[in-house]
Amino acid sequence: MPSPFASCVALSSLQKSILLRLSRSRRSPAVLVERSTLLLLASEGKTSLAIAKELGMNRQRVRRWRNRWSEELSVRLNAMEAVAEDAVLSIAIEEALSDRPRSGTPPKFTAAQEEQIRAMACREPSEFGLPHSQWTRGLLARIAQERGIVESVSVAEIGRWLKKGGSSRTGSATG
């Protein structure tokens, strides 16, 4: 008997067949196979603890997917099933079982800052009153900070920007 805290997972026959196909797939990402299997086991009335043991995962993770299915996905997919083709429903289920986008850390530098430093690297250091014949990443970082383009930047970050931007002054001459 399912725990009182575990959400009941009710599946239509079409949803069940799509999840069964996903759970047996060798080409789908492992995470989709795992989540499909989890939902199929939950629809059979297995407890979150039993599913967690069977699939070798944390019970909290099982509970999260059971809840997500019953609270968010079930209603939307049932409504879609009534009007959409099987292929569309299959894609919707795969998307529903995929990870949600994560916010991540906001970028530390703007595209304009990167572009200013790349543009600076395309010019001669002497144009900036420097007694150097070539730029180094360290020199670019120091001058960018002195000119107020960035508050601080690592030499490695400068290198990534230059590699990404293709700003080598000799790059166009050599190919």
Which helices and strands, and how do they pair?
Layout (H helix, E strand, L loop, with lengths): L12 H12 L5 H14 L4 H8 L3 H25 L2 H11 L14 H11 L15 H10 L8 H11 L5 H4 L1
Describe this structure in words.
By secondary structure, the chain is mainly alpha-helical. It has 2 domains: 84 residues, no CATH class; 59 residues, no CATH class. Helices cover 61% and strands 0% of the residues. α3 packs across α4. The longest helix is centred in the middle third of the chain and has 25 residues. The protein is elongated and about 75 Å long. The C terminus is likely disordered.
Features:
175 residues; mainly alpha; 2 domains; 9 helices; 0% strand
Measure the end-to-end span. Answer: 69 Å
The number of distinct helices, counting runs of at least 4 residues, comes to 9
Unreliable parts:
170-175
Q: Helicity, in percent? A: 55-70%
Main beta sheet strand tally, sense and closure: none
Name the structural class: mainly alpha
What's the Cα radius of gyration?
Answer: 27 Å
Number of DSSP-assigned strands: 0
3D shape: elongated
Strand content: under 5%
Summed over residues and divided by their number, the pLDDT gives a mean of: 86
The ordered H/E elements are HHHHHHHHH
Domain module tally: 2
